[in-house]
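Cross-check.
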Amino acid sequence: MAWGRTTGCAGSRPLNVALRNFDKLTVAAINGVAIQTGFSLALSCDFRIAAAGARMGSATLRFALMPDEGGQFLLVQLLGVARAMDFLLRNRIVPAEEALALGLIHEVAPPDELQVRAMALARELADGPQLAMRLLKRSIYNAAESSFAQALDDIAARTAISDHHPDAREGVAAFREKRPPKFNAWLDERG
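Predicted model, tokenized:
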């Protein structure tokens, strides 16, 4: 087993950290079986859509190994301590519908629609106010590991940036004019 642990950990841990810290929102499309490393990779993404029939979970204890890709941390954040304990110590591998009920994924799609649904979500997110969304993503993850006072300070610092951004002016103008906002014009101006 040493071959899998050394290679898997060396490659997957930095990838999971990079995904979690990525400046943009990420979407995982899960089709088939996502076990341990693949499961942790999916949990590192901001949004997860699974095909009906997909299964996911952890099975490291079947080999007396640890979930060293960050999966235990992500499961505690998503499920809480008691449910993460049950999930990991009982080697749970759950179907997509149960993963949805547990809050591990955001949507279950028919297998032939998985890619379309994942791309639709990615487009929806890409059309949103990018700067504010990036700041909010980081603030949400920070809040999960902070005190209430720290979370208030964090969002206040980020609000000082986003409130004065062109997307905020566009959002207010679109609301007043009763039209959909056209965010991210500033991205075109950079080029």
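Strands lie at 27-30, 33-35, 47-51, 55-57, 93-95, 107-109. The chain has two domains: 2-125, 128-183. Passed to J.P. for a second look.
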